[in-house]
Specification:
Strand content: under 5%
Largest sheet: none
CATH architecture of the largest domain: Orthogonal Bundle
Shape: globular
Number of helices: 6
Structural class: mainly alpha
Length: 133
């Protein structure tokens, strides 16, 4: 149990060092996302506060971007709203966004390789769709 807590603490410290070292759009995206999700679930700050064990004032400061939340706080808030925090490398993010956008459907080419989403502006045209001259 102590090893697990130590690993979680080290991960949290690493994450906090990482976000202090970079000015990321995450600083503005996460608070707005958390507030939007709370409102969509029709939860008040008081209701969420009771679920996560933080004061309504603290939650409000996180959502408004006045306070930098710890990863553990973001995870607790997400869990209380039925979500999971997932950290992925930048290189995987576009593919993951496409996957989620298409409700988990993966489009493949005739060779079995994953392809871009049909009708997406960046999607390559299949071989059979090219003009014949």
């Amino acid at each position: 149990m102590q090893k697990k807590i130590a690993r979680q603490l080290e991960f949290t410290r690493s994450y906090e060092r990482l976000i202090r070292g970079y000015a990321t759009p995450m600083d503005t995206l996460i608070p707005a996302f958390l507030r939007r999700q709370r409102n969509q679930r029709r939860l008040t700050l008081e209701m969420l506060s009771a679920k996560v064990g933080m004061s309504p004032q603290h939650l409000s400061e996180i959502e408004s971007g006045k306070r930098d939340p710890r990863l553990s706080s973001i995870e607790r808030m997400a869990e209380a709203m039925g979500m999971t925090v997932l950290i992925v490398p930048d290189a995987m993010a576009p593919d993951l966004r496409r996957y989620v956008t298409n409700n988990g459907r993966i489009y493949t080419t005739h060779t079995g390789q994953a392809a871009a989403v049909p009708n997406h502006p960046e999607a390559p045209k299949p071989d059979h769709a090219q003009e014949k001259t």
